[in-house]
Amino acid sequence: MLVTPSDSERRPWMGDREFHLVTDPVEYRDLIDELLGRKRFGFDTEGTGLHPVRDRTCGFCFAPEPKRGYYVPVRHKKGLNLDLDEALAGVCRLVDSTSVTWDMWHAKHDVSMLWNDDVPFYEWRVLFDGMIAYWLVDSSRKAIGLKHVSKVELGVDQL
């Protein structure tokens, strides 16, 4: 389902971007099939906290292209969730692909979060970690968090 941010949530950078909430198994399978047909896609986990061992994944974010994103809730206390096993099966299908590049920020964190859900990353294929790339360009930078980098480099305030 297409989600329109409220006026209080809307930011100038959102512009004509699409945001989708995926709680339907058929829509989720279609999304995974689309991602498998791409050369690369954006990926992020949302968790109950920032500790990759103690906290749990509560949702997945996918971006098959720059102006279209999907959120898949799996462990939210309120609202609809996609079945966790169904969601993890889709992620495992993506992990098994040898032809898709995952674009991430702080991939170590996301991989650790999913490792806790038994996603087999020991045969990880191809990923691009924007945080590492940003640091490699200038390793003297002290702040490399996504919110900071978005603000400093792009002039964008994240939600």
Question: Could you characterize the architecture of this molecule?
Answer:
The chain is of the alpha/beta class. It contains five helices and six strands, in the order βαβββαβαβαα. Strands 1-4-3-2-5-6 form a six-stranded mixed sheet. α3 links the parallel β5 and β6.
Number of helices: 5
Radius of gyration: 16 Å
Helix content: 25-40%
The quaternary organization reads as single chain
Order of helices and strands: EHEEEHEHEHH
Coarse structural class? alpha/beta
Which residue ranges are poorly predicted, with pLDDT under 50 across at least 5 consecutive positions?
none
Number of separate strands: 6
Round the mean pLDDT to the nearest integer and report it: 86
Major sheet: arrangement of strands: 1-4-3-2-5-6
Distance between the termini: 20 Å
Largest sheet: 6 strands, mixed
General form: globular
| Portion in beta strands | 15-25%
Which labels suit this protein?
globular
Would you spell out the secondary-structure blueprint of this structure?
Layout: E1 18-21, H1 25-36, E2 40-47, E3 57-65, E4 68-73, H2 84-96, E5 101-104, H3 107-115, E6 126-129, H4 130-137, H5 146-154
Parallel strand pairs: 1-4, 2-5, 5-6
Antiparallel strand pairs: 2-3, 3-4
Helix pairs in contact: 1-2
Question: In brief, what are we looking at here?
Answer:
The protein has 159 residues and is α/β, with parallel strands linked by helices.
